[in-house]
Amino acid sequence: DHLINQIAAGEVVERPASVVKELIENSLDADCARLEIDVERGGIKRLRVRDDGRGIPRDQLALALARHATSKLVDLADLEAVQTLGFRGEALPSIAAVSRLTLTSRARSDLDAADDSAWEIAVTPDGRLDGPRPAAHPPGTSVEVRDLFFNTPARRKFLRTEQTEFEHIDQVVRRLALARPDVAFELRHNGRLVHQLPATDGRPGSRRARLDRLLGAGFAEQSLEIDVSALDLRLHGWVRRPAFARSQPDQQFFYVNGRLIRDRLITHAIRQAFSDFLHQARHPGYVLFLELPPHLVDVNVHPSKHEVRFRESRQVHDFIRHALKRRLAQGIL
Ligand code: ADP
Ligand code: MG
């Protein structure tokens, strides 16, 4: 089983940043309000994600580390309507198979059968579980991952410098923090505070402050806010004003039902909207969110989950193109 998990880890765990992504997604799925991400030496030596989410009761700690044990899908029909970021039950066992992992949690007493203390469980290098044993932890969960790929030297060889690995982690945190302004994020590298992002409070100014912190001062001011709905589709977010629409490939973020995706259909629709309006090709920055009923989109295409498949792809394309084009034409409003 340990071996199977190590093989599966090849799909899920490419580098420290993929670990951080999976752990943050689990925290978001657990309805946390704040997240602390602590990274040492590019995440290769050690990384830890701590949340204040609903926690894991003692008797489910071992299960959380078992393969294909997810608490998120009730039956197969649910696959049509996945609302959570994770649903395969693969991440924790896969990460544990290629690192030294410790899971510490305290179930939020108002939701689960009140656990009166926190519990910790670790995975030994040969794949056995050690614990649960009592621990100290506020309500919520911490996952600590040390010595990534210590037992898979071939994989370890593919890691880049600590600085490069950290940059990948930073990118993952930015993507998720853009999508979840309602959650506070803190990121530290080697003890140094890299991001401190308070949760937004619903006022537009606080939402803009997060955008500017993540994408550079002036992003919000140089962008048009958009929020358009038609039928089952809603497109909202920010797109660079034409006057500031240069080539900004590092500022292009598109989310479908909260998940960041890369999709040629979408890129094409956005580019089309700009060239309809400006009569020249542009690749401007944007942070856009498309919301649609889960049954109209298949997120189950690839484990890395950057791809999606739309049931009505033409309709989605045209909706985005026309919504953006109209917004660009309205300008300052
Ligand atoms: P998945 O996210 O696909 O369900 P994972 O392997 O990522 O699978 O996690 C396994 C299970 O562990 C989750 O279904 C969830 O029940 C539990 N879990 C993991 N991380 C957390 C967390 N931060 N807070 C609460 N529960 C968690
Ligand atoms: Mg998960």
From TrEMBL:
The reply on keyword Nuclease is: yes
What is one GO cellular-component annotation here?
mismatch repair complex
> What keywords would UniProt list here?
DNA damage, DNA repair, Endonuclease, Hydrolase, Nuclease
Tell me which residues make up the DNA mismatch repair protein S5 domain: 211-329
Signal peptide span: none
Domain of life, per lineage: Bacteria
Gene Ontology MF: a single term:
ATP hydrolysis activity
UniProt GO BP: mismatch repair
User: What family is this?
Assistant: Belongs to the DNA mismatch repair MutL/HexB family.
| Record's function text | This protein is involved in the repair of mismatches in DNA. It is required for dam-dependent methyl-directed DNA mismatch repair. May act as a 'molecular matchmaker', a protein that promotes the formation of a stable complex between two or more DNA-binding proteins in an ATP-dependent manner without itself being part of a final effector complex.
Q: What is the designated name of this protein?
A: DNA mismatch repair protein MutL
Gene name, per UniProt, is mutL
